[in-house]
């Protein structure tokens, strides 16, 4: 059901309305009045006739008019019955303020399940419980009690009322921007993050979506909705609950799931989300992204009136991977003509005192820099706005003139400007003007740099990245009959681990390169296979009852004569029987020894929040000690597989190292895509582990030496 | 010469004094008047009789009184002659404002050299050139022109006038702290960073030293002075010019040296410096460290009135390596008695609405938490100070009461409190009170967390780290005669690369484990040596004319019979003569093949800023691809060598890995210390390269397989 009627409610029943000024049920009505709510308000309280001049109803079903939304301020245990009434009345949604649900132990969990069931039966959608409330600022529907929140075009969705209060306070004090909606998701019991995302994506009054997230209950749907949303408008997200201490805190606070998994960061970025790790930068980045054109070419100019700020900014932007290219020689000439002899005009541009008595010059410099075809955006750092304060009052008019011009240049050249000024504290009028033209001003250099960075990253995403990504899994679409049979057969016989040759068979069906192999029932079979191959072989026990083959003495390597094959066969069988006398032995798997190559590890598992994910790394110490691995949410695209390979720290090994020739990256990409296909095809698969894979030099492919597939137990 | 007379000047000559209001030579005198400078002011300008009511002198030598300091506001080219006058007059120091020196090309560099020479001859110490000036706020000696800078106990030393302006503005708007001195070091042509450090270490009115550094000209002296200073008071430093873009910017700005080298960060930390990478946190950290007791046990409690802030803070502190331990059960009981049923009392503590109508409770919670023996300090996050603003005005008196109590608890329990409050913007009186008690308040959670972190790090440093560190090199102290001869001999014969067996001989003299080896002149010698050893050998050409032995076919490995030794000898000689017919061949170095072990790399070089440094890593891909290496400025202490080994990402390999037993860390520590001794003993050494070193399992030691020593060319 669409959330439109809930979030744009034209009438609100306040259940638990009160005459007691300290109660939420009183304050809520006062706030709706103060904020000039456009809709109707119906207090509900069986003990009162009227509250604050409004007729008071005993039950929500007594209300004559239609009711879109109920604000429920009563305690947890009253909620189920109230929801039943709401259902009868045809109320579209309810905001449940009370805590005492999932975050408060077993009893609370049961109550929350009941509440969700009742709501589903009655067709009432729930915001919360354990929420600070929601606001639709366009119509004055303020069910939170934060007063004077600035109206604007940013939708705010948080899992913490305090964070909402902080962001709203910050917006009202430090910017000209504001909010279209606020939703506190609370325990996310019914309406989930991704549903709000979908709603705000389609809301014409919302230009950016700002989220504070401690944990997601439906990670994959969130990614898909975020992916759709970020094609239309920026989504900025603070990822909290990253550490075990953070997770514990989040758990006791919203009862949210396991915080953020290791795959979250790349998944969010692939979905085009602007991820912030630092609450100082959350609102500024949303402000910037909702106001300015993005930077398409990752190239930024810095304009400064002092060396220190230019140096710090150059460091920060470079560390963020942004280029600060030398300006075009013509741009340099023009700047040279504007500025004193000792100015730096390459980039960073340092005016070297040129603006001291003439701050209007800033606008001229900005014009020349933005006209440079190679420059995608501009960061102005230093004292702008303070010349009229520090030097001579008249200069402030020049600064205001410059602000007007800069504002117009942003529109004319379709390139953003972000300003750092240490006079921001003192709120000079020129800063107000810059903000009027959507040019944000910050007193923190780090914040200003992060904003520029976010313009680069989002610009890059929109121009390149998104085309190839999908978070939708088409189960069975690429499935093969024969593989399905192997899986069904294993499950039917009560096994959740496929035998090695079964796992390899499935890989083979999906065109993964493997060595020829045979399950041999007798020593003679093994010898014949050995003769056919004409190379040393490896021999491994095949038994559903022996999963740790080496421990059972069930593996022999490098066997290079007929006689030794025979001996090994007997010994393996003997060892296996000693290890587990009643083991059902299917035979012995014989494969040629693989040629030496680079050890690769590929694995998949089911992530709690995001579902199937894949892991890739170069085997040995790089994976085991350095943890140098890349994760992705499945399915993979070709580009994504490529980026995964290039992303690990040791990726350059693939380009050839210590005399090796470059390795066959194309084969590796094909392997990752095949694994993605396999996991997508057979939803029964819980884990895959290809370890080792041996990768050979360019055009020589690879071989999967060992493979394990674990199925979901029924 | 001591800087005391310079920085506490009782009389100032303003050279370039002017009646023109736009000139620095006018403004400087006005500022000194406005700031009630306690000393005498002497304007100097041959064209004027008096300026601003003061008698004006044609030359500094005309002044009747003693002159401690000259502020020189005239252009670059006038400086040498003015300095000569200052010398004649016995002026102790000069502040040179003008730019146009090292930062401005070759001509400027020559002028700077001249200025420094003249100053040295005349006995005048220089601040600058290219500086914004200096201030001694205690006596009103303000030679900068930043007005109303708050007085206090922080000494500020920067390489950027804008950064000074920013920090001073921040202090005056956001804190109750201020500055004892400010020095803009400018081009650091004469007085260097480390001399200021030394002066401020000894200044009784300075409690903390705050520095913005883009590059150091005398890195090692800086480390030594910082090491001495941080034992007495905190030194907080923003390291700028970290990236190539940052370095370029710094270069064009102050003409400073190559920014910061890779070893800078660990070196600064070893010297006890609190290094900040983010200008937002620079002043707050200095404020905190100069105000509060440090945290000795790395254990912090978080007290919050909302889950979001608690979660973010828990994440940030955990990511910074700080423990957030569960509170003692008795503390939990006491908190439980104070707070509502649904409060979290473990840590983070969440008051869960308990303070909504009773913010005085914060002080009670703080008391119980600080009394917990396991807790070293407290971070209070959320709304404190805003209860009187948001809920009911009366609550502000409760908050003020709580602030008074918290202030006293800091003193009583000798543990710090840092406060985050989103109402900081609105400057409630309770925050002013907290600051009066030296409890800092920040609106940024990140800043507050960084401050707590800095209290932990500095506390840890003071209790453990510093005892074993020295940055002083005692050249030759541990030198051996025989090794000195090898080096002298090489240099005398015009060689700057020692032959392998010479390098190894020096290692052997310093008790580094090596395989037995012999330079054999004939095949018979080689055969005899082979027989004596009774193991396969490696044979390598010894010639000062053949440094790339493998390229010359001069290396044979794994030779395991007398006949093959003979053959190899002849072949190596033949190859060498083919490679370089006129090569002078000393013989062939024969060594037993080393047993397999873990490949280690140890190297030393001379760093531009810090002098001799050492590098350590585990050989192969870990060093070459992952760059997993640790650097230290030499000399090493035992503890420092140990930390170096533990610091690399792959350090756990040494504890045993993939079936290996733990490796012999003690032998590795001995090796690093021996290398440190060698570099310290022989200042002629420019670079050492021990690659590979083979490390064996515990108590089995190591072997240096190949060694290279390069000498400084004369």
Give me the count of strands of chain A. 29
Q: Within the CATH hierarchy, at the fold level, what is the topology of the largest domain in chain A?
A: Rossmann fold
Number of domains of chain A: 5
The CATH architecture category of the largest domain in chain A equals 3-Layer(aba) Sandwich
Brief rundown of the structure:
The structure is a homodimer of 714-residue chains. With 714 residues, chain A is of the alpha/beta class. In chain A, 38% of the residues lie in helices and 20% in strands.
Annotation keywords:
homodimer; 714 residues; alpha/beta; Rossmann fold; 7-stranded mixed sheet; 6-stranded antiparallel sheet; 38% helix; 20% strand
Would you give an account of this structure?
The structure is a homodimer of 714-residue chains. With 714 residues, chain A is of the alpha/beta class. Chain A folds into five domains: 1-133, NAD(P)-binding Rossmann-like Domain (Rossmann fold, 3-Layer(aba) Sandwich); 148-291, 3-Layer(aba) Sandwich (Rossmann fold), CATH 3.40.50.261; 293-467, 3-Layer(aba) Sandwich (Rossmann fold); 516-592, ATP-grasp fold, A domain (Dna Ligase, domain 1); 598-711, ATP-grasp fold, B domain (D-amino Acid Aminotransferase, Chain A, domain 1). Chain A is built from 24 helices and 29 strands. The first copy, chain A, has a seven-stranded mixed β-sheet, sandwiched between helices. In chain A, strands 24, 25, 26, 27, 28 and 29 form a six-stranded antiparallel β-sheet that branches. A five-stranded parallel β-sheet of chain A has the order 2-1-5-6-7, sandwiched between helices. In chain A, helix 10 (282-291) packs across helix 17 (445-463), helix 11 packs parallel to helix 17 (445-463) and helix 12 (329-338) packs antiparallel against helix 13 (361-371). The interface between A and B is large, with 78 and 77 residues.
